[in-house]
Amino acid sequence: MIFDRRAKTAENKPELKPVELPIDYLKMVEETLKETHAAGIEELKKHHPVCELKATGALYSNEVLMAITISHGEKSLIATTVYASADFNPMMQEPTIDTILNECLDSAGSVLEFYLDPKHADRIAGVASASIGILEEAPFEWTKMEETKVSVWVKIDKSNPSLDALAEDWLKKNDPKYSISEQAEDAEEAEDFLNERLEAIRNAKSGGSGGGDSGPIRH
Q1: pLDDT tens, 142-178?
Q2: What are the two backbone dihedrals, phi and then psi, of residue 58, each rounded to the nearest 5 degrees?
């Protein structure tokens, strides 16, 4: 899946293939956010009976990127996506990848808390709308959060990353040049990449050798 990244890789450095965040972790994120924002989602259903919350994200060589999308079913193009991004250095012991992910989740969650507040019908309507301009006080560009354990930037737009997955499925079924075996190999390499870095971080850590009303950005 292609994301609009915040941290760009220097031109003289090769970009390693990104690793999608584990499916089990993303499912946990989705369930947590659905439970936390259940009241707001029920209000949103008054505009769109179908409300789907989807978590995606990737680990890059220098960045962790998480995206939380509220869409209204496969037949609707309308969606609102909140992104959270933090710097990542696989060679550093601290902060751990767990800490970075938690801070990204908390930051994205605080933005959702603002726009899914059931006490503010106008904000709910903004999420339901196809127009980005109706989202008042929104961080349309990468905006740094404050009072976080690690530096996290957030952004919101009306994109729908899930459409990329639908496009990929279409290619698999209709493009003879699309190699499923190559995709499987890429997925295996990506998983190895993530596991190696997580193991290195754990070894280093163990000493081994191997919602407010002033806007969604908290101050």
Answers
A1: 999 988 899 999 999 998 877 766 666 666 677 666 5
A2: -150, 155
Residue showing tokens 């089990």: 24
Residue indicated by tokens 């003289």: 12
What is the spatial distance between Cα 40 and Cα 207, in angstroms, rounded to a whole number?
45
The answer to whether 161 touches 3, Cβ cutoff 8 Å, is yes
Residue 40 in 3-state DSSP?
helix
**Exposed/middle/buried for 188, CB within 10 Å: 0-12, 13-18, 19+?**
exposed
Collapse the DSSP code of 194 into the 3-class scheme (helix H, G, I; strand E, B; otherwise coil) and give the result. Answer: helix
Q: What's the pTM value of the predicted model, to 2 decimals? A: 0.77
Is there a contact between 70 and 44 (Cβ–Cβ < 8 Å)?
yes
Strand 52-59 and strand 19-20: the pairing is: antiparallel
Residue 79's contacts (CB-CB under 8 Å, 6 or more residues apart) are 69, 70, 71, 72, 158, 159, 160, 162
Distance CA 136, CA 124 (A): 11
Encoded tokens for 144: 């740094």
